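Task: sequence design from structure.
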């Protein structure tokens, strides 16, 4: 029972509390105190390589009001028990409670973090949706370029988005305004993938600003 109390408690305060509990149990069973103390002394001798009495052990631990803790990587149960034994011997020798605190390695410390790329790098080869912030008009498009480059094309007079903003709202299309009204529908891997997904989103969302020239056939074979 002393071995169990020693191995399963992380500091001497808890070990001594468990020893007090053991004495209550054995005294209730009418074991003599001298016998209990002799067994306890033999136990302390094997653990700390010194003949400590129970009172000396209490005084050495209570000599420090605040224990000193060391953070040690957890390397397994055998190594942890050995380290606790050495720290307990040091505690008894210097009269200050020294406690090891075992920590396990986090998974994040074993894996290298991926480099965070600027958002502009990931905003290419995508299917996007333009939602006019003045009405319900919408437009589904695709681009294999960077999205900000595609926005330059939507500011031209031939763009259906540009025509809508000028005719319906008397607004001059500008890049900040267009980017604010655009959201990414899908990130694709190739131009063909973009064209297919664009067609599917047009059929699903029925945007009012898409015209016949925006079809897959027109884009793929031009």
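Answer:
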């Amino acid at each position: 029972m002393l071995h169990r109390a020693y191995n399963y408690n992380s500091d001497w305060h808890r070990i001594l509390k468990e020893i007090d509990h053991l004495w209550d149990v054995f005294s209730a069973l009418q074991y003599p105190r001298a016998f209990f103390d002799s067994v306890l002394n033999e136990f302390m001798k094997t653990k700390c390589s010194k003949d400590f009495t129970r009172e000396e052990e209490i005084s050495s631990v209570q000599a420090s009001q605040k224990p000193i803790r060391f953070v040690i990587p957890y390397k397994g149960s055998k190594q942890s028990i050995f380290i606790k034994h050495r720290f307990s011997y040091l505690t008894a020798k210097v009269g200050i409670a020294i406690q090891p605190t075992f920590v396990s390695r986090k998974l994040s410390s074993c894996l290298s973090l991926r480099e965070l790329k600027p958002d502009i790098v990931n905003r290419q080869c995508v299917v996007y949706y333009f939602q006019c912030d003045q009405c319900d008009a919408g437009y589904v498009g695709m681009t294999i370029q960077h999205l900000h480059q595609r926005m330059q094309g939507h500011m031209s007079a031939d763009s259906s988005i540009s025509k809508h903003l000028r005719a319906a709202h008397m607004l001059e299309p500008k890049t900040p305004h267009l980017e604010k009204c655009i959201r990414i529908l899908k990130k694709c891997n190739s131009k063909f993938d973009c064209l297919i997904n664009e067609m599917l989103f047009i059929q699903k969302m029925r945007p009012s600003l898409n015209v016949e020239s925006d079809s897959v056939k027109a884009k793929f074979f031009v």
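The chain has two domains: 2-105, 119-221.
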